[in-house]
Design goal:
Layout (H helix, E strand, L loop, with lengths): L17 H5 L6 H28 L1 H5 L8 H4 L4 H22 L1 H18 L8 H21 L5 H29 L12 H30 L3 H4 L1 H17 L5 H7 L1 H19 L1
Helix pairs in contact: 2-5, 2-6, 2-7, 5-6, 6-7, 7-8, 8-9, 8-11, 9-11, 11-13
Length: 282
């Protein structure tokens, strides 16, 4: 059951911490507890969605060269147990969110609704499925702000939105490149895309992301009167370009795997985070 919940992908839920950290409330004890609870709520919700997805796609996954090793597809976890787990985790995420803040409840409920919609058929609709995947990243970033009552600026929201689309578009592009290289079957929706279209999506997203992040960094500089947020643009862009190398080579089908196994990317990410945190707390 634990493996079916895909603990390696729980790293995505750290996006919940972004707004509180940048908002300058991360050191407040009450905000810290709130941040942890929000991360746990999204972890429960995401795990429930993974179980639903695996239960619905069990036959397709069994024909896939790597997904057939997943617990449900391999038979290590029964379909009934997967549905039971989802029936516990999804409501639990809503209850935990409701105990914390009604706004967080709305965000988690929207996340679950969109992802269930994705699992039940929208994963086969081009563009719509891209936006559905991207919304998962964006809603995590929004959740941290609403849970800790940190105002989310327009630049933060735009950067988070297009950053999410960059991750989703890059994931699909990498999957297509990998499928073309290995000859292994990919997800059905890839047949309705072209490499040039997916390249356009993540190139457009990267351009908007860099622009809006830079504007946001200068806005932080004006508010805090130090230069660390502006300096953060350098490692941010370098990390983006480094990640794009993996996307273009077809190695970014699982973004969390790329991030965790690329030491240079981790170092750039740490430098970026240090600069951004320094702009708020120094």
């Amino acid at each position: 059951m634990l493996r079916a919940c895909r603990p390696r992908q729980w790293t995505k839920n750290l996006l919940v911490l972004t707004a509180p950290i940048v908002g300058g409330v991360a050191l407040d004890p009450r905000a810290l507890v709130t941040m942890v609870v929000a991360v746990v709520a999204f972890t429960l919700a995401a795990s429930g969605i993974y179980l639903v997805n695996d239960a619905i796609d069990v036959e397709v996954d069994r024909a896939h060269p790597t997904k057939r090793r997943r617990p449900v597809a391999s038979g290590a976890l029964s379909i009934r147990d997967a549905w039971t787990g989802a029936a516990i985790l999804l409501p639990a995420a809503l209850v935990l969110s409701a105990l914390l803040d009604w706004q967080l409840l709305v965000v988690v409920a929207v996340y679950e609704a969109v992802q269930l919609w994705y699992c039940l058929g929208m994963k086969h609709e081009p563009v719509i499925e891209l936006v559905s995947v991207a919304s998962g990243f964006l809603l995590r970033a929004i959740a941290g702000g609403v849970a800790t009552h940190v105002a989310l600026s327009q630049w933060f929201l735009i950067a988070a939105g297009f950053g999410s689309l960059f991750m989703a578009g890059g994931k699909r592009y990498a999957e297509m490149r990998s499928s073309e290289t290995t000859g292994e079957p990919g997800r059905p929706v890839l047949a309705r895309y072209t490499s040039s279209y997916l390249r356009f999506v993540w190139t457009l997203s990267a351009g908007v992301l860099v622009t809006t992040y830079s504007l946001w960094a200068f806005a932080i500089r004006d508010a805090t009167s130090n230069e660390w947020s502006v300096i953060s643009i350098v490692p941010f862009v370098m990390a983006l370009l480094r990640y794009a190398v993996d996307v273009d080579s077809g190695a970014a089908g699982e973004p969390e795997e790329v991030v965790l196994h690329d030491r240079v990317l981790l170092a750039l990410g740490a430098a970026w985070a240090a600069c951004l945190i320094g702009s708020v707390y120094l």
